[in-house]
């Protein structure tokens, strides 16, 4: 289990923001971090990884204390066994695929590296330089490199936001395989509701630096009124991938993406009011 309570004064777009979040996450869980831009999600990941120092609080991973401001304990990032997948990949351009993965492996475990290349579909690209790869391929390298450290905690900062929807769906499946096979505790930042529902069992919802809710995605993404289990949104645009449609909608001040079929998407026009409802991992749309 990872248990943390962290406080940090941050400089946000609208001035200073005090991040103050406390949570307990069970070992082996896959958790999502959701909230508006500037709410403190990435800063929270960076503090867990040891890349940013909190003003106060603590981080405890099982029986290990990674940070405690009162006891003046601060374990450096290399000793925390955290895998971090950044939004911009952060790969070494002078190394090939296999070298990027091997660099992160403390004992240069060649058997483990080969296994990671196979799981992430990179076996045929092991000798390729990073700059020759597509965005989706680079993200696979970043995932494999993060797992090569044999982490206790895998942190994912919007890792799939910069790739197309077809590749995004493939990488979601890769993430589920990695999470299950290596039994790692995972936390992902995402604004994609379908992605959150597909990948994670619970969502930490943050607004203005504070934890608003910590429960299942289905409960968070439904209106709280007794008469409705749906989210009222404004339709923005749609994108077709194969037989599926991915639509972007505005709810409050947030743009989210959901999947739908052709029948649901064909009559939607920019500015239409729609209702998005959730049942398990399925999403349903209704034009208002």
CATH topology of the largest domain: Rossmann fold
Give a short account of the largest sheet.
6 strands, mixed
Structural class: alpha+beta
State the helicity in percent bands: 25-40%
Q: Spatial order of the strands in the main sheet?
A: 7-8-9-3-10-11
- CATH homologous superfamily classification of the largest domain: P-loop containing nucleotide triphosphate hydrolases
In the CATH hierarchy, what is the architecture of the largest domain at level 2? 3-Layer(aba) Sandwich
User: How many separate helices?
Assistant: 8
Uncertain segments = 223-228
% residues in beta strands: 35-45%
Q: In the CATH hierarchy, what is the class of the largest domain?
A: Alpha Beta
* End-to-end separation: 44 Å
How many domains is the backbone divided into? 2
Gyration radius, to the nearest Å?
20 Å
Element order: H for helix, E for strand: EEEHEEEEHHHEHEHEEHEEEHEE
The shape, in one word, is globular
Give the overall pLDDT as a whole number. Answer: 86
How many DSSP E strands?
16
Describe the structure.
- The chain has 288 residues and is an alpha+beta fold.
- It has two domains: 2-219, P-loop containing nucleotide triphosphate hydrolases (Rossmann fold); 223-287, Beta Barrel (OB fold (Dihydrolipoamide Acetyltransferase, E2P)), CATH 2.40.50.
- The chain is built from eight helices and 16 strands.
- The chain has helices spanning 41-49, 97-104, 110-119, 135-148, 165-182, 193-199, 217-220, 262-265; strands spanning 2-12, 15-25, 30-34, 56-61, 64-68, 73-74, 82-85, 153-157, 185-189, 202-207, 210-215, 230-241, 244-251, 254-260, 273-279, 282-287.
- The chain has a six-stranded mixed beta sheet with strand order 7-8-9-3-10-11, with helices on both faces. Strands 2-1-4-5-6 form a five-stranded antiparallel beta sheet, with helices on one face.
- Strand 4 (56-61) and strand 5 (64-68) form a beta hairpin.
- Helix 2 (97-104) packs parallel to helix 4 (135-148) and helix 4 (135-148) runs parallel beside helix 5.
- The protein is globular, with a radius of gyration of 20 Å.
């Amino acid at each position: 289990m990872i248990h943390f309570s962290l406080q940090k004064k941050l400089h946000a777009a609208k001035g200073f923001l005090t991040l103050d979040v406390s949570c307990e996450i069970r070992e082996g869980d896959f958790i999502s971090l959701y909230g508006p831009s500037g709410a403190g999600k990435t800063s929270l990941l960076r503090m867990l990884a040891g890349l940013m120092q909190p003003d106060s609080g603590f981080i405890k991973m099982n029986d290990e204390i990674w940070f405690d401001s009162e006891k003046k304990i601060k374990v450096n990032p290399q000793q925390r066994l955290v895998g971090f997948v950044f939004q911009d990949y952060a790969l070494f351009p002078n190394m090939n695929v296999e070298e990027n993965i091997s660099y992160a492996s403390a004992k240069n475990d060649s058997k483990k590296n080969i296994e990671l290349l196979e799981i992430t579909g990179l076996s045929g690209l092991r000798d390729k330089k990073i700059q020759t790869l597509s965005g989706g391929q680079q993200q696979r390298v970043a995932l494999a490199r993060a797992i090569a450290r044999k982490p206790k905690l895998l942190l994912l900062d919007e890792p799939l936001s910069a790739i197309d929807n077809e590749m995004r769906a493939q990488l979601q499946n890769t993430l589920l395989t990695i999470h299950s096979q290596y039994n790692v505790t995972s936390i992902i930042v995402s604004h994609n509701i379908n992605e959150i529902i597909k990948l994670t069992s619970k969502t930490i919802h943050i607004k203005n630096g504070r934890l608003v809710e910590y429960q299942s995605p289905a409960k968070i993404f439904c209106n709280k009124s007794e008469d409705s289990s749906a989210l009222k949104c404004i339709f923005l645009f749609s994108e077709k991938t194969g037989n599926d449609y991915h639509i972007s909608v505005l709810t409050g001040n947030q743009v989210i993406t959901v999947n739908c079929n052709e029948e649901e998407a064909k009559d939607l026009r920019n500015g239409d009011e729609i209702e998005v409802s959730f049942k398990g991992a399925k999403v349903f749309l209704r034009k208002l």
